[in-house]
Structures are given as C-alpha cells and as structure tokens.
Amino acid sequence: MTDKKRTTIVLFSGDYDKAMAAYIIANGAAAYDHEVTIFHTFWGLNALRKDENIEVKKGFMEKMFGKMMPRGADKMGLSNMNFAGMGPKMIKGVMKKHNAMSLPALIEMAQEQDVKLVSCTMTMDLLGLQKEELLDNIEYAGVAAYLADAEDGNVNLFI
Prior knowledge:
Blueprint: E1 6-11, H1 16-31, E2 35-40, H2 60-68, H3 86-97, H4 103-112, E3 116-120, H5 121-127, E4 139-141, H6 143-151, E5 155-158
Parallel strand pairs: 1-2, 1-5, 2-3, 3-4
Helix pairs in contact: 1-4
C-alpha cells in the first residue's frame, strides 16, 4: 500500500474544452505527486486518436464512425459556441494570445508526467477503433481495471 494520493478521471466527453479541463486537472494532480489515471471511453477516445489516417481493415459501420469522429485531440469541437467549427479556431486564438497550452501539448505533458492514459477496450470495439489508430504509449483496459484504480482514489472525476 502506498501513501501516494490517487486521482482518477473518466473522460467520456469528446469536447475540446472538457478534455482540456480533464488534462489540466490530471497534470496538476501529477505535479502534486498524485498517481493519475485518465480512463478514456466513448467520445473521450477521440483525444487519443492519431491525427493522420491509419489504414486498418474495418467493416462498414466502423468506417462510418471513423469518418464522423474527429481524428485527434486538436480536431475536437467545443461543448458550447462551436459555431460550425469557428468556435475552436476562436478559442485557440485566445489561448495562443494568453500562452495557454493546447490540448495536444497537455496530453504530451501528461505522458511525460507518467499519467496513465487508458483506452476503454469495450468502447474501442463498439466504435471500431484499433490500437494502430491511437497514440503510442497508452494502456488498454476494461472498466474493471478503471474501478481497481478508482477504488483507492482520493479524487475520482467524470468529465
């Protein structure tokens, strides 16, 4: 048993701003020496998708999901004020002006701080996502693994 505090986050949302909040909290907790897990499920998996198109064999429905979902963290829309894609461009401009880190940079920082990034394998199956399409150096697990981490958690969040 460790004395280290543990923070777990379920990232369910595929919204840029909500994913940013999850990663800001995760990086802050890691900086305070917490063991941190982000369990990405459903639309939150889009934060882990690679930007480039990866050729993998898929059925019709899996291809359709792949085309409809954003490819990579930087292509995710906002939860509010999306404005047909203009909202993310506007918020990214404001973020740059204020020297705020982008979502891809926050994800990279989380990996550098040993935040455990977990992709939900059941959701991957449902949406037809394959390991080759997701970022390198992440983990793959089901809900039981998340619950094992959350059971000893000091902070457990659902975003």
